[in-house]
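Researcher: Predict the fold of Queuine tRNA-ribosyltransferase.
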Amino acid sequence: MTIPFDLITTDPNSSARRGRLHTAHGVVETPVFMPVGTQGTVKGMLPESLHDLGAQIILGNTYHLFLRPGHDLVKKMGGLHRFMNWSGPILTDSGGFQVFSLGKLRKIDEEGVRFQSHLDGAHQILTPESSIEIQQALGSDIIMVFDECIPYPATRDYVIDSTERSMRWAKRCKQAHNRQDGSALFGIVQGGMHEDLRRKSAHDLMEIGFDGYAIGGLSVGEEAEVMYEVMDYTLPELPADRPRYVMGVGTPENLIEGVRRGVDMFDCVMPTRNARNGVLFTSFGKISIKQAQYREDERPIDPDCDCYVCRHYSRAYLRHLYQSNEILSSMLNTMHNLHYYVQLMAQVRQALDEGNFATFYKEFYQRRQSGVVLES
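Model: Structure tokens for Queuine tRNA-ribosyltransferase follow.
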């Protein structure tokens, strides 16, 4: 295995686990939330600010960086770490989700995916081999295999065909991956919402052999309970000594439920996207800062939060910034939301270290159900 993963402790009352992932650009304590920096930047955040709020690892995206500015340019500039001034680990998504979301602008065949760029309409192709080549040129610490993110709902026949093709692509990705740069390669379990197909996909990936395993094709419109069911029957199939990553998930509740089921790594655009729309996460639930009730509210977003925003700004000021369409609104809102997500995982790790995850889990829901801050 290219990147060692240490399993430190497991919760006796659930499948929650505490781990440590070693990469060329630093150690990642798990469970971990990874902010999404699609185009070589986490929107509205300086790299120094990400470090300050405790972010350990961030994401880049193959599709977007391939189209602009181009992976060859990024490589020429010293790789993505140097290009964006981020010294910590980087995981890159293969671009599969973005390509498949293009709909009629793309065509899938055994070779890969032919598509028209959303930027200028130019015809492009991504294959398992080119996806790996791009990610290695970017200098990613963790590379994801190229696969199809299956839509929901989808017929069983479609899911079978897609999952089998993704498995063939996974083999090609492993063959194309050059380990000399120290990067790790993660496989991605597909299979839609079908238990037998998910189990088969997990076992087939393990036969190929990867440094870590992700569950893809979730948070695509299914109900939360369906998502949890997929986690319930898929995660136990994956090797305990490798990191487990659920892609594109999700709400704070999704993260806590994922941790309880044995997930080590998460990413999602939810904290950053919601921030730009004036929706802020707190230990007591979400608030929409645009609402008139906050016009004269002198309190911080969350009195229990020690982030820079909560220490210096009132809800009234943040509402004013949002209503005025000021750039600072997105910056401050994003800083708070990412701090909340990152620190939520830090609290989970502490609870696991201290052996009281069950208590943490119970109190997490009790506080959100009380809505004390929202009603005080």
